[in-house]
Amino acid sequence: MLEQSPKTEQVRNTLQEPCCPVYTPTSYMLLLAALDNGWKIIKMELAPSWDQYGLIYLISLKHQYQKHTQLSILPKNPTIEKLLRERNLLCALG
After folding, report:
1. Percentage of the chain surpassing pLDDT 70?
2. Residue 65 contacts by C-beta under 8 Å, 6 or more apart in sequence?
3. What is the pLDDT of residue 62?
4. What does the pLDDT average to over 67-94?
5. In what order do the strands lie in the sheet with 40-48?
6. Residue pair 47/17 in contact by the 8 Å Cβ criterion
7. Per-residue three-class SS string for 26-64
8. Which pLDDT band holds residue 68 (cuts at 50, 70, 90)?
9. Rounded CA gap, 72 and 39, in Å?
10. Closest of 74, 72, 33, 75 to residue 54, by C-alpha
11. Is the separation of the CB atoms in 63 and 39 below 8 Å?
12. Environment class of 66 (CB within 10 Å of its CB; exposed 0-12, middle 13-18, buried 19+)
């Protein structure tokens, strides 16, 4: 008899797919999800990008129940800056 329940990999892959097309940068969505799930920004700095043509945000995140920190690299663009400004995080950059 075949098992009707989906395998763990199938469920995870399905959950990773957006339910509709999204035209927002993935990095923005990951930062937004992390902040909404209780992660806090512990360090944020502005650095030159690897191609030296722009700037990126290097953001260290920590959750109160996790022992490790997570590094997020985000492009410096109006969408990211708007999110940081709305959450009063842009001023933390100094």
Report:
1. 71
2. 38
3. 92
4. 80
5. 40-48, 55-62, 69-75
6. no
7. HHHHHHHHHHHCCCEEEEEEEEECCCCCCEEEEEEEECC
8. confident
9. 12
10. 75
11. yes
12. exposed
Residue 91 reports pLDDT greater than 80: no
Distance CA 24, CA 33 (A): 13
Q: State how far the Cα of 46 lies from the Cα of 76, in Å rounded to an integer.
A: 8
Using the predicted structure, report yes or no on whether residue 61 has a pLDDT greater than 50.
yes
Res. 36: pLDDT tops 50: yes
Contact 71, 47 (CB under 8 A): no
Question: 46: which 2 tokens?
Answer: 């502005």
Residue given tokens 């923005």 in the structure block = 28
User: And the tokens for 62?
Assistant: 């920590």
Task: Using the structure block, give the residue that is written with the tokens 């129940």.
Answer: 65
